[in-house]
Amino acid sequence: MKAAVLEGVKKITIKDVKVPELQDGQIEIKVLVVGVCGSDVHLWKQGKGWNPNQQNDFIMGHEFCGTVTKTRSDKFKVGDRVTFWANLYCGECDMCKKGLEHLCREVNGTNYIGFVCNGAYSEYFVGEAKRAFKLPDNVSDIQAALIDPLMVAYHAVRKSEIKLNQKVLIIGAGIIGQMMAHLVKQAGATYAATTFVNDLKIQKAKEIGDFDEYFDGRKEDIAEQLRNKTNGGFDIVFEAVGLGSTLDLAINSVKPGGKVIVIGNSITPTVQFNMNKLVLNEVQLIGSVSCTRVEFEETIDLISKGIISPENYVTDILPLDKLQTAFERLIDENDPALKMVVKP
Ligand SMILES: [Zn+2]
Ligand SMILES: [Zn+2]
């Protein structure tokens, strides 16, 4: 089969590789659509996956759907359209037993399909049937490839326990930030604002219009502007960038007693922020990652019931051969691409 192999630092090569042999409990799918994710860009920059013992050609891709072509499990039949949840939870540990599979002791933020083992930037993908979910007919292939970022947005919004009439700031208007803006409105927020630092990259967000207002994050007095706008601070701030400066802005623009939900993964794990402000204002600082297995299924439901259409956020549909170009465009400050998907 044709596959996009990560061969080195910033180097994807389209190669002919062997389709993995089907084992008991596994299914083989013909991959239909794969979402190109920001975390793929990190791996592309480092030129390898998270598994130091990876033997064969490494293939990324964790946001995908496909049609079952072979099965050695009775969970699915040939022709079923499915998506996989990339989170490789163990199902045995204390967290998994509580239904908190996203906090599984074995996962640790890196144990995902397409990170530690081969993903789906290829014509076929073979994986364990127990990690796959059947797609409703009214969820399109492209929508199904966007369940992964949507589940992150959904889980974060649920963690915020947002209430009617609250004001929300979302720092970072990438796809997850925009999906959160849409979801907080559905959940009863009356005002959702965002900050941006690149005029070009915010264009698509303005076009879709999930936010009520856009603030230029490059301005010196940005925190003050945001507090003034909300009579003393937002009820909830989502930090979706992962920098010390944006976490600091979040703490400085939330109201006393308010919540800061952090979903931005920092490239440098240690960042600086104003801790006194956090303590003296009793700001609640909450981390959020991925989602639970139940929430993953609920995310499929959100799309099926028309609560959100993730297709709106897709700016580019590319053939697999263009994956290298997709990554180059994603790191280009002068490219307005928001979400790209590839069709192998
Ligand atoms: Zn992703
Ligand atoms: Zn576990």
On the 0 to 100 scale, the average pLDDT is: 95
CATH C-level name of the largest domain? Alpha Beta
Query: Termini separation (Å)?
Result: 10 Å
Largest sheet: 7 strands, mixed
Q: Approximately how much helix is present in the residues?
A: 25-40%
Fraction in beta strands: 25-35%
Bound molecules: zinc ion
Tally of DSSP helical segments:
11
Radius of gyration: 20 Å
Total number of beta strands: 15
Please write the string of helix (H) and strand (E) elements. EEEHEEHEEHHEHEHEHEHEHEHEHE
Unreliable stretches: none
Which superfamily, in CATH terms, is the homologous superfamily of the largest domain?
A: Medium-chain alcohol dehydrogenases, catalytic domain
Sum up the overall morphology in one term.
Answer: globular
CATH topology of the largest domain, which one?
Quinone Oxidoreductase, Chain A, domain 1
Structural class: alpha/beta
Q: Return the CATH architecture of the largest domain.
A: Alpha-Beta Complex
- Total count of domains: 2
